[in-house]
Write a structure and sequence with these properties.
single chain, alpha+beta, 3-stranded antiparallel sheet, 4 helices
């Protein structure tokens, strides 16, 4: 069950999909070391994260600093946080230079877009006015008490970015064919579930999600269990399938290149063997500049180019108010 992308994009998953059908043995007949696949997966995830400016597995950021300008109050201090997607705002503080922090209520943060990590600071009715001044520096800068119209690195934000992964156990009661599961996390985008039956009751084959909200999913069975309750494990996440595919494609490059070199030997395009009038010629797609699985690699590169173009349009947004 998945707690991060590394529980989904595993070595076996890679072997079963993008590098299926490839001879994954060295010249001595031994299997490729797992390090080849594991490091390829880690590097692929890191590359996609850096390219899109996102975190895939949840990551907590402490003390990210943002400037403030007098004119920002007209947009209620709209800020675009550095990493996406936004899971939660954990702490908001004011800092002038390197002075001690003065905390603001987390309720001030109104999330405008989880996908693009955009927030506004809007005082709630319960706390409005209670923190107008902090050590002589007004919360709304630039009034009669302060000659400044801007402060660099004024707000300090602690937040958690990344996609959400959750797992648990649920039960469909005997003679019922569905159950609603209240999730511990709030999912702000589409939910993708996985199920594994662990109980002995029959009739639960074909478990599927038949309804969802940001805080719950409803799971249905093809037929209701008739000889006892049906217990199953579930794992849900909101990881974008295109991000998973992009990581999968990039992670396949190194194993395919290594395997391509070993088809007949690095850079060997043709082998000819002749004995007593008998001969055999083996031609490959390898050459000094082309790998044995070059056609598959080029197909994957074209697919990756299209996927990344779509993902950049989805996750990269021009930040007009980026303070």
């Amino acid at each position: 069950m998945a707690k991060s992308i590394f529980d989904i994009l595993t070595v076996q998953f890679l072997k079963n999909t993008t590098i299926a059908g490839v001879d994954l043995t060295l010249d001595d007949g031994s299997d490729f070391p797992d390090d080849i696949f594991e490091k390829s997966i880690e590097q692929a995830v890191a590359m996609v994260e850096l390219d899109l400016g996102i975190m895939i597995s949840p990551f907590s950021i402490k003390g990210e600093r943002h400037d403030v300008d007098l004119k920002d109050r007209h947009s209620h201090y709209l800020m675009s946080l550095d990493l996406k997607p936004l899971k939660s705002i954990d702490k908001i503080s004011i800092r002038v230079g390197n002075t001690d922090k003065a905390e603001l209520p987390v309720d001030y943060a109104t999330i405008g877009s989880h996908l693009h990590s955009k927030i506004n600071l809007i005082p709630t009715s319960a706390t409005a006015g209670s923190l107008r001044f902090v050590s002589g520096v007004p919360f709304l800068v630039g009034d009669v008490f302060s000659p400044y119209s801007t402060f660099p690195l004024y707000f300090s934000i602690d937040y958690t970015a990344g996609f959400t992964f959750e797992e648990g156990t649920a039960t469909i009661a005997q003679d019922s064919d569905e159950v609603t599961i209240n999730l511990a996390n709030t999912f702000n985008t589409a939910v993708y579930p996985e199920f594994k039956i662990i109980g002995d009751a029959q009739g639960g084959a074909g478990l599927r999600m038949i309804g969802s909200s940001s805080t719950s999913i409803t799971v249905g069975a093809r037929t209701a269990p008739t000889d006892g309750d049906l217990t199953f494990e579930y794992s849900v996440n909101n990881l974008d399938p295109m991000i998973l595919r992009a990581c999968q494609l990039v992670a396949s490059y190194l194993p395919l290149n290594v395997a391509g070199d070993l088809i007949a030997g690095a850079g060997i395009a043709q082998q000819h063997v002749g004995i007593d009038g008998l001969s055999q010629t083996i031609s490959t797609t390898s050459s000094a500049t082309n790998a044995g699985y070059g056609a598959r690699l080029r197909a994957y590169e074209r697919e990756l180019k299209n996927i990344m173009s779509i993902l950049r349009g989805k996750y990269r947004q021009m930040s007009i108010y980026s303070r």
